[in-house]
Specification:
Elements lengths: L6 E2 L8 E7 L8 H12 L3 E8 H6 L4 H15 L3 E5 L8 H8 L6 E5 L13 H9 L2 E4 L4 H8 L5 E3 L6 H4 L12 E6 L13 H17 L3 E4 L17 H5 L2 E6 L12 H8 L3 E4 L4 H5 L6 E3 L2 H12 L7 H14 L2 H19 L24
Parallel strand pairs: 2-3, 2-4, 4-5, 5-6, 6-7, 8-9, 8-10, 10-11, 11-12
Antiparallel strand pairs: 1-3
Helix pairs in contact: 1-14, 10-13
């Protein structure tokens, strides 16, 4: 494999960053949203250069973790990054020599760990290797707050920031093209039904998802559909390609989403994807979720399956044209604050501020979280 492509841009009023991103791409270049976001930040002068190292692709090619660490060192030595970001590393083991080398680069980069999943024992424990890496990073970026996050703090991770899951305007930025005709369905859900041989490891949100599917199937019959692995019955539509989610939402008047694991502020990328397409959405309640989505968001939150049905039943009484304003509001909010460019820009700002602070610079800025209004992911909510 040749060296990752390097992208360079102009200078801004403050020194733009140089980013080395270890990205969980099974195929190098496949995370279109991340590459597009970084290119936009280069064009805006916020990023001078970046390199993306797709470590899962290298693992699939038979490269061993120690060799991966050596390749990362080589990339860092050439780029001299000011920011290093590890993404969703899972069980990847990185030796101490690699981390020490990154720390001691002449550019003295700040280092962050970024994971888009939530974890919770016993359902989905955080990999031990990922915990070891998170502990040595300056900042950890996560999409929600639960007992797992508080456990990270107790284990020595002191700086944890909120970064939500996002949509990709390049693939999901167009409005749904079905509003001038009758919809085939009233409600659509997208979500897998994973199974566990150990009953107590079935995630709480999955049990709720199963109840929702049963309820909507009983209430709506053929006017309801669920997409994803593991479903059976008349409502089951089978797996769906990631890029076809917008098309699936276009077949129904309303969409319903829920989390597998419960966490304050948390939602999967399906919600911002649906919003950016202009879908009218219901979602299970999480503390702080409305704040994270932004003022004026039209997403309806429910706490029980019965409440979810009451909301849908009321929505079905109104003409579809009533919700045109809500669809537009959902798209505007998603595209204005829930894209990968926003997420990457915020993480770069935080790492830049940390680097300046560590160097004792009086100009180090306090970076306010654009979704929560605070600086760090706090622990006030349950």
């Amino acid at each position: 494999m040749g060296p990752p492509e390097q992208h360079a841009g102009g200078r801004s009023a403050t020194e733009p960053a140089r980013l080395l991103l270890m990205l969980n791409e099974g195929v190098s270049g496949s995370h279109d949203d991340v590459h597009r976001a970084l290119d936009e930040l280069v064009a805006a002068g916020r990023l001078a250069a970046y390199r993306v190292y797709a470590f899962p692709a290298r693992l699939a090619q038979g490269v061993r973790p120690r060799e991966i660490a050596a390749e990362i060192v080589a990339e860092a030595t050439e780029l001299l990054p000011t920011a290093v970001l590890w993404s969703h590393t899972g069980h990847l083991s990185i030796n101490r020599e690699c981390l020490d080398h990154l720390r001691n680069l002449p550019s003295r980069p700040a280092m962050g760990f970024w994971d888009g999943d939530m974890y919770q024992t016993p359902y989905k424990p955080f990999p031990r290797q990922a915990l070891s890496l998170a502990r040595v990073c300056d900042v950890v970026f996560l999409p929600g707050l639960n007992a797992f996050v508080r456990g990270l703090r107790r284990s020595g991770v002191s700086d944890i920031r909120y970064v939500p899951l996002t949509t990709d305007p390049g693939r999901f930025g167009g409005a749904l093209e079905m509003r001038d005709r009758e919809c085939d369905l009233d409600v659509v859900m997208i979500g897998n039904r994973p199974t566990s041989r150990i009953p107590f490891k079935t995630m709480p949100g999955l049990r709720w998802r199963i109840e929702l599917v049963k309820m909507f199937e009983a209430k709506l019959g053929p006017r309801f559909a669920v997409f994803g692995h593991g479903w059976r019955g008349a409502c089951a539509q089978g797996p769906i390609e990631f890029t076809q989610q917008g098309a699936a939402y276009s077949t129904a008047r309303f969409g319903v989403g829920n989390n597998n694991l419960r966490a304050a502020y948390y939602f999967s990328d399906r919600l911002p994807i649906a919003m950016s397409c202009g879908a009218v959405m219901l979602h299970n309640f999480e503390p702080g979720l409305s704040e994270a989505l932004g003022a004026g968001n039209p997403v309806r939150l429910f706490r029980t399956t019965a409440e979810a049905w009451r909301i849908v039943e009321a929505l079905l009484q109104a003409d579809d044209a009533v919700y045109q304003g809500e669809r537009q509001a959902a798209r505007e909010i998603a595209l204005a604050r829930l894209t990968m460019t926003h997420a990457q820009g915020y993480m770069l700002d935080v790492l830049g501020s940390v680097r300046q602070s560590r160097a004792g610079s009086p100009e180090a800025a306090i970076v306010v979280n654009p979704w929560l209004g605070g600086e760090q992911l706090g622990g006030a909510l349950p």
